[in-house]
């Protein structure tokens, strides 16, 4: 709710500039994770941005779309603070900021993908969209499980496996029945063609 209010009240240019800055920083971090070098200066504007680097791969190109940099920053600050002092009284603030930054990330990711992003073409648009969707879904699932009071990763995993088994059984039934239906339909067509 806080993000929804901020999205409509704050100047869109300030929000977009913050997103583009985080987007380019995320590219730079992932370049470093893959052992690459990044030029000290990079370009950020309301029309987009870019970094200069000695390497690129699918993960580097797509990282800003599935790695919510500001959410990672909030979790890092909270984690470091937790090492040095008791911060459980402020957990609600961390959850509020985490929700805000995730909503920020997902909103601008969707907006910019809809506008067409050259990053998506590196590994192929369909593949890139699937990677972005699955990893964002996985992040949201893990965070929801972490905050759910009566849910555990083990229970979720067991139910996921059971549902997957049921889905595979359903697909097998559908393919089997579908092939029988097509076979009957083909025989009917053959009979009509012979007449």
Mean pLDDT: 84
Count of DSSP helices? 7
Strand order, main sheet: write it out. 1-2
Order of H and E elements: HHEEHHHHH
Uncertain residue ranges? none
What is the general shape?
extended
Structural category = mainly alpha
Question: Could you characterize the architecture of this molecule?
Answer:
The chain has helices at about 1-10, 10-35, 60-65, 70-85, 90-115, 125-145, 155-195, and strands at about 45, 50. The termini are far apart. The protein has two domains: about 1-145, no CATH class; about 150-195. About 75% of the residues lie in helices and about 5% in strands. It has a two-stranded antiparallel ribbon. With about 200 residues, it is mostly helical.
Features:
195 residues, two-stranded antiparallel sheet, mainly alpha
How would you summarize the topology of this molecule?
Blueprint: H1 2-9, H2 12-33, E1 43-45, E2 48-50, H3 58-66, H4 69-84, H5 91-115, H6 125-147, H7 153-194
Antiparallel strand pairs: 1-2
At a glance:
The protein has helices at 2-9, 12-33, 58-66, 69-84, 91-115, 125-147, 153-194, and strands at residues 43-45, 48-50. It has 195 residues and is mainly alpha-helical. The chain has a two-stranded antiparallel ribbon with strand order 1-2.
């Amino acid at each position: 709710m806080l993000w929804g209010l901020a999205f409509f009240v704050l100047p869109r240019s300030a929000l977009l500039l913050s997103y583009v800055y985080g987007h380019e920083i995320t590219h730079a971090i992932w370049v470093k994770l893959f052992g690459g070098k990044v030029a000290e200066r990079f370009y950020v504007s309301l029309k987009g941005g870019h970094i200069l680097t000695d390497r690129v791969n699918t993960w580097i190109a797509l990282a800003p779309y599935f790695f919510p940099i500001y959410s990672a920053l909030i979790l890092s600050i909270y984690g470091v603070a937790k090492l040095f002092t008791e911060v459980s009284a402020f957990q609600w603030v961390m959850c509020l900021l985490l929700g805000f930054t995730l909503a920020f990330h997902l909103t601008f990711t969707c907006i910019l993908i809809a506008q067409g992003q050259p990053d998506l073409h590196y590994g192929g648009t369909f593949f890139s969209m699937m990677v972005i969707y699955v990893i964002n879904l996985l992040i949201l699932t893990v965070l929801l499980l972490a905050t759910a009071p009566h849910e555990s990763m083990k229970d979720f995993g067991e139910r996921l496996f059971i549902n997957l088994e049921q889905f595979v059984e359903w697909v097998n039934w559908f393919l089997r029945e579908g092939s029988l239906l097509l076979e009957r339909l083909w025989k009917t067509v053959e009979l009509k063609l012979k007449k």
